[in-house]
Specification:
Blueprint (H helix, E strand, L loop, with lengths): L7 H7 L4 H4 L2 E4 L7 H7 L3 E5 L8 H21 L12 H21 L4 E2 L13 E7 L11 H13 L1 E8 L13 H9 L3 E7 L10 E7 L12
Parallel strand pairs: 1-2, 1-4, 2-3, 4-5
Antiparallel strand pairs: 5-7, 6-7
Helix pairs in contact: 3-5, 4-5
């Protein structure tokens, strides 16, 4: 799976984040090598990133991996320009520059503030219930629908909602290389309602991957019964 380095600016667009949103207690999961957490905290906010890679690599190793992954992703973008919309990024060069800059800032923040970067692998997170007001999750669920089945999607959303006091936003709703939304989304939402989670699809003013201009916004209808046994 591609480890991406996205900036606060890209997160704001992907998740339609307002200034009020950025003032909330936020979890970014999986955080990858994005600079979102670094930038939010530098501006006085309270963001935490969670990803299994934080337990496996040093900041220098993660920076090197971030650059390598950026180059790999950028080669694909250049080879398949028709799969992308060039509005947020005007061209492949800016895409490459932005991602390398974000990865560099991430690595610097990890060196100086390691407590902001918590190792954890979905669908089980090392946080107490309702630890965060807003949870953001990008480019895992739906993006890898060819490898992650419906049960994994349900278990993961339940776990992300367990640690979310108020709201979860998931972006995008399309698989990598496909402009078609996740085909089992309606069934997933129906099953989540049984866990006291309601989700709705919301359009955003951002589209890089063709068709990737919607997010899933989830709220509690009650405290969810989201133990792993309850969602198998």
């Amino acid at each position: 799976m591609l480890i991406s380095s996205r900036s606060l600016g890209e997160y704001r667009a992907m998740f339609a984040l307002t200034e009020a949103d950025l003032a909330r207690r936020i979890l970014d999961c999986p955080g990858g090598t994005a600079s979102f957490t670094a930038e939010v905290n530098a501006a006085g906010g309270n963001a935490t990133a969670c990803d299994p890679i934080y337990a496996q690599h040093s900041p220098d190793d993660l920076l090197a991996r971030s650059v390598a992954e950026t180059e790999r992703g950028n080669r694909y973008v250049r080879a398949h320009p028709g799969q992308y919309r060039w509005s947020f990024f005007p061209d492949a060069e800016e895409h490459q520059r932005s991602r390398i800059s974000a990865g560099t800032r991430f690595a610097g923040d990890l060196r100086h503030h390691p407590r902001r970067y918590v190792p954890g692998r979905l669908p089980e997170l090392p946080f107490a219930e309702a630890s965060f007001e807003l949870v953001l999750s990008s480019h895992l669920l739906f993006s890898y629908a060819d490898r992650l089945d419906l049960a994994f999607h349900r278990r993961t959303i339940c776990e992300l909602m367990r640690v979310a006091r108020d709201e979860l936003r998931v972006f995008p709703l399309v698989a990598m290389g496909s402009p078609v939304p996740y085909p089992e989304l309606d069934g997933l939402l129906a099953r989540l309602r049984g866990n006291q989670i309601v989700g709705r699809v919301v359009g955003v003013d951002y589209e890089f991957q063709a068709g990737g201009n919607q997010m899933l916004v989830c709220h509690h209808t009650g405290r969810p019964s989201c133990s792993l046994g309850a969602v198998s």
